């Protein structure tokens, strides 16, 4: 297994940069998600990795070998990578087994070795008994597993996945997330997974590259992205939370309850630090008129099954999201304790 290095890669289409000086070091066997809103350059990066798109600047290396630079371009078929598309791209006139074996046929493999590798790949995705069916006789999730088996059959160094679950309904996506985790654990292939769905990226990836307008906004584990997002933009893209202005802390610092509550009580002119407060760090109590508590009012209440989600308006005018075990009435005054907050850098 080889690690993948993306070294200051830039891709321009005419005047416009789709990807700008992107650098990532992907460890062998790691599953990395490229996450970002539509148009941020995820697919362009994936296509450069696959070799479908030449790059304008920078270098891509696999192990010690240069795959692409301004001067050098290894064609896709010599990269030992496999790609899984959103649309599955299965041949409708071929059986499941023939679809899976197709890349081996291209490599002129047949006979016993061909049959064994197809059977192994199908077994790995739990479809051994579907070999003779045609793709039309399968569900969306099963079709995507055929596409996974087809990309595994050649034993690739790197698997590239372009929004592979985007066509499936929510229920099936959750089940397929588990299939992907199993698939990755068993193969230990290096995988690059493109998605604009943060919960999918968080559930699957070892590390996530959050992209914004072609640039890397943050590159970290899912836990770090959630707990320590660099900017308000990253914070708004990962999980739920509220931004408040406080007179305490500096970027990259965690504020404990006492410092956070003091910082919120300061006069507005002194509250210059932006802080992210996650809903699970907000405690909601009945408001007592006499107390000095941080106070707010319930603006809306949404039932989420396991809890209620409250949107609150503070006396400062700022909004705050909180969770609560029971329903509260809209308009109800409440007192609040914020247990912790994370100080953000200003957005670029
Ligand atoms: P989505 O999630 O919508 O697929 P993405 O993050 O994958 O978006 P890309 O498809 O990589 O984004 O596109 C990045 C930018 O590059 C966009 O502004 C897009 O319009 C532009 N772009 C992509 N391919 C081309 C092309 N062949 N010619 C010109 N511009 C392109």
UniProtKB/TrEMBL annotation:
Residues 4-238 form the ABC transporter domain. Transmembrane segments: none annotated. The keyword Transport applies. One of its GO terms (molecular function) is ATP binding. InterPro entries: AAA+_ATPase, ABC_SmlMolc_Importer, ABC_transporter-like_ATP-bd, ABC_transporter-like_CS, Mo/tungstate-bd_C_term_dom, P-loop_NTPase, Transp-assoc_OB_typ2. Keywords: ATP-binding, Nucleotide-binding, Transport. SMART domains: AAA (SM00382). PANTHER family: SPERMIDINE/PUTRESCINE IMPORT ATP-BINDING PROTEIN POTA, SPERMIDINE_PUTRESCINE IMPORT ATP-BINDING PROTEIN POTA. This is ABC transporter ATP-binding protein. It comes from Halomonas sulfidivorans.
């Amino acid at each position: 297994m080889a690690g993948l290095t993306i070294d200051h890669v830039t891709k321009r289409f005419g005047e416009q940069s789709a990807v700008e000086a992107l650098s990532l070091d992907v460890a062998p066997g790691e599953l990395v998600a490229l996450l970002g809103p539509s148009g941020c350059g995820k697919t362009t990066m994936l296509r450069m990795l696959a070799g479908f798109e030449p790059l304008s600047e920078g270098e891509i290396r696999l192990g010690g070998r240069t795959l692409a630079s301004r001067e050098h371009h290894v064609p896709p078929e010599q990269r030992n990578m496999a790609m899984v598309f959103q649309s599955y791209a299965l041949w409708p006139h071929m059986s499941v087994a023939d679809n899976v074996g197709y890349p081996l046929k291209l490599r002129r493999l047949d006979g016993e070795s061909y049959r064994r590798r197809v059977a192994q790949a199908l077994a790995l995705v739990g479809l051994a008994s579907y070999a003779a069916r045609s793709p039309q006789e399968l569900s969306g999730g099963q079709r995507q597993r055929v596409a996974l088996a087809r990309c595994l059959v050649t034993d690739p160094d790197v698997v590239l996945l372009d929004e592979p679950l985007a066509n499936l309904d929510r229920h099936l996506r959750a089940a397929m997330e588990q299939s992907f985790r199993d698939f990755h654990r068993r193969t230990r292939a290096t995988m690059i997974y493109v998605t604009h769905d943060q919960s999918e990226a968080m559930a699957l990836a070892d590390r996530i590259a959050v992209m914004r307008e072609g640039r890397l906004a943050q590159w970290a584990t899912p836990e770090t992205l959630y707990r320590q997002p660099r900017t308000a933009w990253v914070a708004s893209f990962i999980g739920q939370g509220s931004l408040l202005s406080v007179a305490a802390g500096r970027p990259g610092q965690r504020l404990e309850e006492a410092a956070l509550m003091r910082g919120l009580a300061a006069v507005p002119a002194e509250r210059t630090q932006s802080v992210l407060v996650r809903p699970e760090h907000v405690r909601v109590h009945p408001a007592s008129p006499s107390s000095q508590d941080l106070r707010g009012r319930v603006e809306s209440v949404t039932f989420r099954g396991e809890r209620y989600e409250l949107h609150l308006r503070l006396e400062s005018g700022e909004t705050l999201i909180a969770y609560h075990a029971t329903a509260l009435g809209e308009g109800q005054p409440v007192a609040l304790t914020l247990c912790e907050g994370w100080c953000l850098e200003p957005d670029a």
